[in-house]
Amino acid sequence: MPNTTIRAFEPSDEPEFLETQRVAFRGLEYLPRVKVGLLALDHEGSFVAERDGSVIGCVGLFKLERPGWFEVRNLAVKDLHPEKLAVDLLAKTSDYLDSKRPEFVKASTPAVQPYVDLYKRTGFVPARRSVRIRWDLSTCKISESKVETRNLLKEHANDAAEVWVEGLRPHWDYWIEEQGGPDELKAWVKQSVGKDTGWIGAFFENKLVGVAILRADSYGKGEARFNGAYALPDYRQQGIGTALMNASIREARQFLQDRMRVYTLAYLDHLAPGAILYLKSGGLIEAEYLQLEKKGNKS
Ligand SMILES: CC(C)(COP(=O)(O)OP(=O)(O)OC[C@H]1O[C@@H](n2cnc3c(N)ncnc32)[C@H](O)[C@@H]1OP(=O)(O)O)[C@@H](O)C(=O)NCCC(=O)NCCS
Question: May I ask the CATH class of domain 4-122?
Fold first, then answer.
């Protein structure tokens, strides 16, 4: 391709990297989240394609929290014709990865073509979907619930760590592994509860049985990040999730949030309970992503 060069990502490329996502996915991609993700970008394994001094394509590589585990995402080109540029970008990241002898590689992309097929052609196999769900907080309705919910304090930190990790199972087992295992996650909860705002607990006979995590202004002023609602497996389908959603929406309004967004799991052929809970509490699916894994990895 005349005048097109592919080179490693540099920090000053960030604005054009984001602009490439916007153009490639016609606004479907949520740029504040992509921007937060770039903090963890592996610069050597991420590439931009440049033509006449402008970025026209990019791909990002991210190290997961386990040695030898990687994620490829943000493959995007401004103009899909010719498609070869996207193929070349993916090949660059693959070559870099090969030199690292990875144990496990996954990929994520907005679930649109040709990106899904481009990943499949290089040996990635669809594993699951995720959906981005948005609540418009001025209009969504909350109902009254008999389940007690309150903001968590430092004294709840140890219980919250146990409830969160058990509450993630079994749907998020893959993610617990990607994050380095249950102890890593518990350690993060223990240092966060009582320090960071937005930890909400649901109690049954004074026992903590569910948690929800809200991060106000995370994606910009008034744009909250919802890190999900979780109930202990033995306490599911008894209204705990609904109570956590009511409390989270109420809390978000108190923090003067306009919208709240979550990225949540969907299996390839059906929604997980979390997505069902969110849709029933007034959330709307904004976008769908596909997560793929490379065959032969993670033996
Ligand atoms: C998602 C979760 C919190 C729901 O909690 P819950 O206490 O079971 O939720 P509720 O009892 O309040 O049910 C809420 C609604 O979702 C529906 N629902 C809950 N689990 C369901 C399931 N397995 N299949 C279908 N619908 C389900 C309920 O029928 C209910 O609908 P209704 O209001 O019309 O009766 C719980 O399943 C869980 O902890 N899952 C694992 C953690 C997770 O994936 N969280 C999302 C992270 S982003």
Answer: alpha beta
